[in-house]
Q: What sequence folds into this?
């Protein structure tokens, strides 16, 4: 029984860890790129969004090249005793890669939506950039950041292509829910497939409800103008 | 407070070019919308960067292109009151004020003082959206003073307030800012006159005039400034002999004072007298239209001897007087007192 639930636990763990990484990484990247000169910013925007436009399989292919044993980076990691390919870490890497652009984009959007004059006035009041970011920018863009987090969570939960490419289908190790569904259907085991499908739908539903509750709450407090 | 500003900045529509020095005075910058008034304030506050020039506040150089000095806004000690107040919407009144106080030891005490001074008692835990416009403005002012600015910039401070509240705030503002000098941007002449010692008139980024408020309204230095300062009756004119000008558009000769060279003449509508008895510089006139306010009437009239009938002149007078003049039913005369004529 425990073995049969493994894809669920793996998916949950992978999605949680990836979402947390992406949350901080996306916010940091969005904040950093916001203060860049317009031209550099455009280039960074394109670069950070790139994983979103690539088909997941192609992304997985590149990751495989990059992290595989034959690449310099792969060799270096191997020297350090790390072999991410076809390990659980690989599911997190692919999840993070596919969700990062979503978080980055929504965070940037949320930051840019903060009233410019509020930031300007904060500066004339003598507040440091760090204080302005932590105490004004972040709280004011929280609804947007939460939306980005939910998007990232759902995207990671459904990740299939890139994960299959670099993590494979190792039951109990790298077999996530979407992959388990695919192989169950392929093997004609409709009952298992349906169970997983039901579970994944339930998780997505919970996500939606949580996001709905959040935006309802922030409206009620009157934070959004 | 001593301030000297000398800036140039290229804007899409025109180039901003401003030079002024201020020594312990309150200044208004007056000009039509889009003339670059707010940009001047933003350059002083450091929110925008001039292309050229130098800004010095109390011997501290805030900006100097040649020396490569450009202090960020957070180091300039210049308070800025935005038109929409820009309160932090997610913070209570207390937090809005508290975050601006640099010294954390006395923060509580200082917040309390400011809350009291700006009559915000009872609103300590309220959020900006729960406050009225006047309360929001007082919070924004308190927050600005909390940071201890050396100069205060006010960007159309009363435009978001209505009627009575606006008048109240205009009365108490100098007191609330006590001792702190301010530089205010407005497009309202009365506001500029009420609240400042000197007025700078600008249009399309250029300074048209900068002078003591009284002198400025009595003797505007040029026609463009005079128009912004509310001069409505303007015409071309030429000197025909000493103290006598010919005004072709009004079709009359007028007695005047001083000045050897004249290209234009103007008179404020408040200075034109409409009555039923003739006098110096008086001409028969006919009222074409009237615009009544509560206590005054604006009369649009033509001189009967005028050849160009399209030219309408304006006079403003007390409504009671206008009604009694009207009732008399006699021929009306428009009088342009020689000492009130503005010559350019």
A:
């Amino acid at each position: 029984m425990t073995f049969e639930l493994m894809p669920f636990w793996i998916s949950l763990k992978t999605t949680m860890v990836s979402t947390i990484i992406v949350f901080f990484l996306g916010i940091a990247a969005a904040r950093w790129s916001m203060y860049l000169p317009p031209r550099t910013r455009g280039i960074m925007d394109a670069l950070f969004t790139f994983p979103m436009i690539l088909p997941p399989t192609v992304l997985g292919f590149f990751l495989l090249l990059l992290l595989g044993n034959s690449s310099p980076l792969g060799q270096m990691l191997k020297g350090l005793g790390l072999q991410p390919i076809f390990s659980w870490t690989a599911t997190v890497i692919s999840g993070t890669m596919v969700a990062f652009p979503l978080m980055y984009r929504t965070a940037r959007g949320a930051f840019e939506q903060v009233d410019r004059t509020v930031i300007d006035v904060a500066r004339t009041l003598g507040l440091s950039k760090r204080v302005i970011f932590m105490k004004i920018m972040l709280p004011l863009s929280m609804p947007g950041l939460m939306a980005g987090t939910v998007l990232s969570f759902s995207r990671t939960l459904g990740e299939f292509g890139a994960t299959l490419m670099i993590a494979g289908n190792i039951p109990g190790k790298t077999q996530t829910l979407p992959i388990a569904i695919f192989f169950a259907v392929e093997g004609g085991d409709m009952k298992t497939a349906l169970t997983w499908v039901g579970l994944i739908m339930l998780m997505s539903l919970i996500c939606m409800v949580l996001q709905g509750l959040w935006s309802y709450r922030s409206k009620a407090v009157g934070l959004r103008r | 407070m001593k301030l000297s500003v000398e800036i140039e900045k290229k804007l899409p529509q025109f180039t901003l070019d401003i030079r002024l020095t201020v020594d312990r005075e309150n200044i208004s910058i007056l000009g039509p919308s889009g003339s670059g008034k707010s940009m001047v304030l933003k350059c002083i506050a450091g929110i925008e960067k001039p292309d050229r020039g130098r800004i010095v506040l109390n011997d501290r150089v805030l900006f100097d292109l040649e020396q490569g000095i450009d202090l960020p806004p957070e180091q300039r000690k210049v308070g800025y009151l935005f038109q929409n107040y820009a309160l932090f919407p997610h913070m209570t009144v207390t937090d809005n004020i508290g975050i601006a106080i640099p010294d954390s030891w006395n923060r509580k005490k200082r917040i309390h003082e400011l809350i009291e001074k700006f009559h915000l008692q009872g609103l300590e835990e309220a959020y900006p959206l729960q406050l009225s416009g006047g309360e929001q403005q007082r919070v924004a002012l308190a927050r600005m003073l909390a940071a201890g600015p050396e100069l205060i910039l006010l960007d159309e401070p009363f435009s978001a307030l209505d009627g009575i509240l606006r008048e109240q705030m205009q009365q108490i503002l100098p007191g609330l800012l006590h001792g702190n000098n301010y530089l205010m941007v407005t497009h309202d002449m009365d506001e500029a006159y009420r609240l400042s010692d000197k007025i700078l008139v600008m249009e399309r980024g250029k300074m048209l005039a900068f002078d003591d408020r009284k002198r400025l309204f009595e003797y505007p230095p040029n026609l463009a400034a005079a128009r912004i300062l509310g001069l409505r009756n303007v015409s071309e004119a030429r000197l025909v002999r000493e103290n006598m000008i010919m005004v072709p558009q009004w079709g009359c000769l007028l007695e005047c004072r001083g000045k050897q060279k004249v290209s234009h003449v103007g008179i404020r509508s408040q200075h034109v007298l409409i009555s039923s008895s003739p006098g110096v510089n008086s001409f028969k006139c006919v009222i074409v239209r009237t615009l009544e306010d509560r206590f005054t009437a604006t009369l649009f009239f033509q001189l009967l001897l005028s050849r160009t009938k399209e030219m309408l002149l304006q006079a403003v007078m007390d409504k009671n007087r206008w009604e009694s003049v009207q009732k008399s039913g006699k021929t009306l005369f428009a009088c342009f007192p020689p000492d009130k004529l503005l010559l350019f």
In short: The interface with chain A takes residues 45-47, 72-80, 82, 84, 86-90, 99-100, 102, 127, 129-130, 143-144, 146-147, 149 of chain B (CB under 8 Å). The mean pLDDT of chain B is 91. Chain B has two domains: 2-228, 233-343.
